[in-house]
């Protein structure tokens, strides 16, 4: 016998469509298989994107950021995304080696609409390509070459509900656990969290690129 919680789960598309209704015409029209000039404008104005990937070990959603225009629209079917220095987990890149499907969400500060791009990615270390993306006097470590399959804008409702760009809603960093405090707790105090927090700001600045 199903529990009361399971009894109310939606398990098929018919039930889902009955709940949410038909897709509006505008929601269908806005999806295209290429980077229309209007969509290109969003990519070129964005300093921040979230890259979603999938692999045998699971899913990953990873932030990507640099000055606006860091993602290059090579042509209407191709995006170039430089990869910078990080924590060397390279979860996204490992996933792409096994499953080349990717999804991107571009955000533009102050703008409610976001841009969603789906496609397939390859990891390039072509020296000529890496040199096209210098930051801090260093080339990119690798470049994702994304073959675009679908593009569409997401309406502003989520950003407006979150009041995301309102500076009065910014959260004081001190109200949340620090990186060092988190590491100390997860390591059961084997990790010196206070030392980590003291060294972190200088280390981030020194290793930004």
Automatic annotation (TrEMBL):
Transmembrane segments: none annotated. It comes from the Bacteria. Residues 36-155 form the Pyridoxamine 5'-phosphate oxidase N-terminal domain. InterPro entries: Pyridox_Oxase_FMN-dep, Pyridox_Oxase_N, Split_barrel_FMN-bd. Pfam families: PNPOx_N. PANTHER family: FAD-BINDING, PUTATIVE (AFU_ORTHOLOGUE AFUA_6G07600)-RELATED. This is Pyridoxamine 5'-phosphate oxidase family protein. It comes from Roseomonas elaeocarpi.
